[in-house]
């Protein structure tokens, strides 16, 4: 049986602003096995980045985990003190942020920044830490790492800085790596290299990875499991195959229609999802996607649907999966009522 590395149960996270409580994450649950790569996908404001900051316990005032559990290697970390989390962060859970320039310190060399993590978490001597820093730069594909280790961040290109961030995050061989939009600011070739790097690292170190992105296209190749978030909730969860070839939620279908798909073998016009995400100070009481959903019915705005289990690993939250209606047929092949009823 696979070992569960992370289990998030009914997590609720809010920000307390002068306008009111922003309910950024409104009760989400998912789990991740050892060596698994999971994508959390959604537009900005869906709650995906807040989820990762909650797991890392890096939320800052006015953000706060309201309730729920986050089990890491079987232990609930929600109530861990900052000091205990310092040991876990970097050592067992590490994170790569979207913009490496704001995460790397411009006045220290890349080598110093990797060595600092190694010395703090592994207690190695300076000499050994430098050797390990060079090894890590080599592992993430930095050419001439013996020389590059003495470079400052400004001497690295955007892609190399992202790799250096990966080297820092991975230098303690964490069990879990969270990468929040690690490719957004990069051009397509570099994006590809970073994703390939993450794939290699998973193979070499058996690291579990959570990849957070607004772009379903990015997760296609690397993730085994995908969680689709919207309005602070999980709309659909399944394997990559489920999400790409058998989506059940209109929001997932909308996301799929808005990305280029080479695998479909035909030129399809990209269709953006019109409208804006819901106001999470006053979240809708029904389905959060109602205002933008082409299939919305009266019940959608009145009551939030429960999850429908489609198969062992696949579930979605939509009234279309509950109700019988022979007139409804979506263009992705999903007929209302034929699933799980
Ligand atoms: Fe659309 Fe209703 Fe399903 Fe929400 S519950 S996604 S509004 S059909």
Task: Summarize the biggest pleated sheet.
Answer: 8 strands, mixed
Number of helices: 12
Residue windows where pLDDT falls under 50 for at least 5 positions: 325-341
Hetero ligands: iron/sulfur cluster
- How do the strands line up in the largest sheet? 6-7-8-3-9-10-12-11
The CATH topology of the largest domain is Rossmann fold
Order of helices and strands: EEEHEEHEHHHHHEHEHEEHHHEE
What percent of residues are in strands? 15-25%
Tell me the CATH superfamily of the largest domain.
Answer: P-loop containing nucleotide triphosphate hydrolases
- Can you tell me the overall shape? globular
Into which percent range does the helicity of residues fall? Answer: 25-40%
Whole-Å distance between the termini? 30 Å
Which class best fits the helix and strand makeup?
alpha/beta
**So, CATH architecture of the largest domain?**
3-Layer(aba) Sandwich
Give the number of DSSP strands. 12
Mean pLDDT: 87
Sum up the structure in keywords:
disordered C terminus; 341 residues; four-stranded antiparallel beta sheet; alpha/beta; Rossmann fold; eight-stranded mixed beta sheet; 2 domains
Summarize the entry for a quick read.
31% of the residues lie in helices and 24% in strands.
Can you walk me through this structure?
It is a single chain. The protein is of the alpha/beta class. The protein folds into 2 domains: 1-92 and 174-334 and 336-340, P-loop containing nucleotide triphosphate hydrolases (Rossmann fold), CATH 3.40.50; 102-171, no CATH class. The protein is built from 12 helices and 12 strands. Strands 6-7-8-3-9-10-12-11 form an 8-stranded mixed sheet, sandwiched between helices. Strands 2-1-4-5 form a 4-stranded antiparallel sheet, covered by helices on one side. A hairpin with a 2-residue loop joins strand 1 and strand 2. It starts with a strand and ends in a 24-residue tail after the last strand. Bound molecules: iron/sulfur cluster (SF4). Residues 249-250, 287, 289-290, 293, 295-297, 300, 305, 318-320 line the site of iron/sulfur cluster.
């Amino acid at each position: 049986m696979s070992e569960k590395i992370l289990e998030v149960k009914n997590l609720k996270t809010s920000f307390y602003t002068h306008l009111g409580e922003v309910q950024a994450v409104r009760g989400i649950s998912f789990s991740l096995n050892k060596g698994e790569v999971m994508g959390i996908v959604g537009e900005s404001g869906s709650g995906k980045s807040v989820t990762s900051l909650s797991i890392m316990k890096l939320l800052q005032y006015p953000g706060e985990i309201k309730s729920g559990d986050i089990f890491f290697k079987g232990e609930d970390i929600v109530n861990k003190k900052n000091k205990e989390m310092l040991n876990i962060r970097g050592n067992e859970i590490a994170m790569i942020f979207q913009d490496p320039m704001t995460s790397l310190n411009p006045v220290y060399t890349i080598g110093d920044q990797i060595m600092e993590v190694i010395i703090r978490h592994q207690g190695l001597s300076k000499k050994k830490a430098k050797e390990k820093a060079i090894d890590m730069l080599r592992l993430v594909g930095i050419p001439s790492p013996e020389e590059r280790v003495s470079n400052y961040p400004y001497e690295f290109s955007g892609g190399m800085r992202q790799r250096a961030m990966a080297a820092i995050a991975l230098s303690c061989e964490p069990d879990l790596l969270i990468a929040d939009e690690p490719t957004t600011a990069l051009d397509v070739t570099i994006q590809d290299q970073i994703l390939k790097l993450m794939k290699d690292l998973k193979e070499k170190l058996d690291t579990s990875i959570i990849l957070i992105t607004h772009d379903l296209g990015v997760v296609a190749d690397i993730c085994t499991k995908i969680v689709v978030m919207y309005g602070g909730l999980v709309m659909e969860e399944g394997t990559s195959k489920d999400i790409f070839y058998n989506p059940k939620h209109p929001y997932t279908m909308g996301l799929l229609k808005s990305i280029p798909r080479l695998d479909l073998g035909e030129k399809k016009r990209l269709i953006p999802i019109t409208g804006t995400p819901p106001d999470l100070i006053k979240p809708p009481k029904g389905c959060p996607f109602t205002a933008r959903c082409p299939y919305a019915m009266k019940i959608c705005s009145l009551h939030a649907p429960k999850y429908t289990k489609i198969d062992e690993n696949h579930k979605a939250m939509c009234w279309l999966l509950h109700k019988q209606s022979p007139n409804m047929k979506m263009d992705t092949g999903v007929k209302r009522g034929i699933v799980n009823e």
